Amino acid sequence: MTAQVHIRDLMSNAVPDGGDKAKELRIMQQLSVDDPTLCYECGKCTSGCPAFLLKELMPHRIMGLVNLGFIDELVNGDVIWACTICLRCKDRCPQAVSPVDAIWALRNLATAKGIQNPNGFNVMLGALLERGIYQDAQENLCRNIETGKKSFKTRQTVGLQGVSTPTDKEKFQAALIAIMQEEL
């Protein structure tokens, strides 16, 4: 016989407050998230998520937890900060729910509640402000299919566009700072 695990056991023994679910969904909708109840957790968003491969971020589970009313647990946890904002989940969602919008809303809610974001997030913001890009494109190890030889290649040598950066860095920095200072 297998042991049954209730979702409250997985979330710090928290039990969702059913009375506040409508209030929290209103908060999410005010923060630009379309109806999160449309998500039926198919997993298409997670299958293309680069943070899933590195940090086991599962956007479909975040949407499920939002639907169950575990907003406080998500806001107080680290999982919402693992998202790379690549927008693949938004592109892949057959219901047009956009988990990335929910993650942004949860991050905004965390910031509004005075919750400190992780240091890695601050490092990423610093790099973004300084260079206009989080990380420069790096050479990747590629293998030639015919010869089997391995060599390092740039994006351009394999036929991809180079990574673009803002043309007016000062204007980009001012816009990013203005976004970060917006009141909810």
> Numbering strands along the chain, what is their spatial order in the largest sheet?
1-2
At CATH level 3, the topology of the largest domain is: Fumarate Reductase Iron-sulfur Protein, Chain B, domain 2
Shape: globular
Instruction: Report helical residue fraction.
Output: 40-55%
Distance between the termini: 49 Å
- Element pattern in H and E: HHHHHHHHHEEH
CATH class of the largest domain: Mainly Alpha
- The chain-level mean pLDDT equals 77
Sequence stretches where pLDDT stays below 50 over 5 or more residues: 1-13
Quickly count the helices.
10
Q: How many structural domains does the protein architecture include? A: 2
Main structural class: mainly alpha
Largest sheet report: 2 strands, antiparallel
Total strands: the figure is: 2
Determine the strand fraction and express it as a percent band.
under 5%
**For the CA atoms, what is the radius of gyration?**
20 Å
Q: Do you know the CATH architecture of the largest domain?
A: Orthogonal Bundle
| CATH superfamily caption of the largest domain | Alpha-helical ferredoxin
